[in-house]
Structure formats: C-alpha cells, structure tokens
Design brief:
Order of helices and strands: EHEHEEHEHEEHEHEHEH
Bound molecules: 2-phosphoglycolic acid
Strand content: 15-25%
Shape: globular
C-alpha cells in the first residue's frame, strides 16, 4: 500500500489527477472505475481542467461506476448517472456510450447486477479504480458486513449511509437499496486509487489502512490489493499510527526521484 499524506484536499486532487493522467498517457483506451460522492469532486474538476486545456483526452476511455441507487433511472436528478454527467462526463470528450453505470431502474436488478459484473470482465477489467471511503468504512455500497468475496449485486444501505446521503438534500428520499460492485469486483481492478479528505473520515481511514482485515470495515479489503495508492489530507490521516513510516517512505521516494 502506497500512502501519501498531502498538505490539503486540493493537493490530494492534483496528485490523484496526476495518477489518472499517467495512466491515460500510457494507455489512452484505459478503463477507469469511478466513484460518486463528495470526495472525488475536486479530482473530477482537475481532470476537466486538464481536458479543456488539451492536456488529457478521454476520447478512448471507458468508465465503470461503482454503484447506483435501486429504482432510480438515469434521468432522475439524484441518480449517480446524473451526478457523473454533471461532475465529469458532460465536460470532457468521453463518448457517453463508453460510460457505464448500473441501471438502477432495471426491471430485474439481480440480472442487471450480474450483467454489469460480466460487462466489466468482458471489456478486460478495470485498470484503475477510484474509491472514496464512507464514514462507516464502506467502499461502493459495500456496507459493514459485506462479504470480502462479493461481486456486483443488490445491497441494502446502512442507516449511517442513508443519513450521510441525505445530508444537504432534505427533500431527497434516498432509496434504501442499490446495485454495487462487490468487494471482490473492486479488488479485481489492476490498481486502486483511494482518496479521503476531512476529519470525518479519520476513524474509517485508520481502520481501513491499519486495522484488521474484516468485513466489518469493507475498506480494509484494500490491504489485500498489491497496487493500492491511498492519498489523504492531514485531517483524514489524523488517526493513523504509522504516519512516521509513511513520512519516511515519502522521503525515500523524493530521494530516488531527485537522483
Ligand atoms: P463521500 O462518500 O465522498 O461523499 O464522503 C464516500 C463514500 O461514501 O464512499
């Protein structure tokens, strides 16, 4: 696990954009796994900026989002599909046909989940999966208790997630179920890019990075991944115990790159 503790949320977004840009440069038809929520918004803004400056093209990129609310169609204002259009897709040169989000309004959500899983595999798998962490340690909508071997499926949201999702949207009756990639689906990505900012995430980050590997903290599954980069601001890193070691790694990294 490669842990970066950077000076601010802005620096987290820039570093994350650098990692995405490096991948896109090496592999212009890369498959990106995307997340909704507050955390990746600054990253998406930075990717839009670079795309509009002509430094980065999404024209051959294919994207797969982690999850979607059940019963919510792509045009619903609170759908994740709509959120992705607003925060990224509508502002970059990605082909909308190459942007995949589970169909939350499918008449057969169980079959939709299975076919989403199959689509990811058929396309060759995800090169880089972007992840936020919920305050309860969830990744995607894999709530505490989710099997570490889970695949894309229908999940019930926890009360904590329902509360968090309603913050700032008093009129939104958030659905209590979703289709989400499973933890094993996420771990199949060739690389993970985990982002967390703000003090509300400090406990979940510490549990995920330094706690036991457990279904009670689904984000702890990233410990199993051989290529996981975690980028934090100081507030999200506040409860970590191995900070001294992460700093040492950073010094060693800088020494190597300055040679
Ligand atoms: P947030 O959500 O980025 O809105 O905090 C993260 C998550 O729930 O995975």
């Amino acid at each position: 696990m490669d842990v970066w503790i950077l000076e601010s949320a802005e620096a987290v977004a820039v570093k994350a954009a650098d990692i995405c840009a490096d991948l896109i440069q090496q592999k212009p038809d890369a498959r990106l796994g995307l997340a909704t929520g507050t955390t990746p918004q600054a990253l998406y803004a930075e990717l839009i900026r670079r795309n509009q400056l002509g430094h980065l093209s999404f024209s051959r990129i294919e994207t797969f989002n982690l999850d979607e609310y059940l019963g919510v169609g792509p045009q619903h204002p609170q759908s994740f599909q709509q959120a992705m259009r607003n925060s990224l897709f509508a502002h970059v040169d990605v082909d909308p046909a190459n942007t995949h989000v589970p169909a939350g309004d499918s008449p057969d959500p169980v079959a939709e989940a299975a076919s989403y899983e199959a689509l990811i595999k058929a396309r060759g798998g995800i090169d880089l999966q972007i992840l936020g962490i919920g305050r309860n340690g969830h990744i995607g909508f894999n709530e505490p208790g989710s099997s570490l071997g889970s695949r894309t499926r229908v999940k019930t949201l926890s009360r904590a997630t329902l509360r968090d999702n309603r913050l700032g949207k008093p009129d939104f009756e958030a659905p209590i179920m979703a289709i989400t990639m499973g933890i094993a689906t996420i771990l199949d990505a060739k690389a993970l890019l985990v982002l967390a900012t703000g003090e509300a995430k400090a406990a979940a980050v510490a549990a995920a990075l330094e706690g036991p590997l457990t279904a009670s903290c689904p984000a702890s599954a990233i410990q199993l991944h051989p290529d996981a980069t975690v980028i934090l601001d100081p507030a999200a890193a506040a409860d970590l115990r191995l900070t001294d070691y992460y700093e040492l790694v950073d010094q060693a990294r800088r020494r190597l790159t300055s040679r």
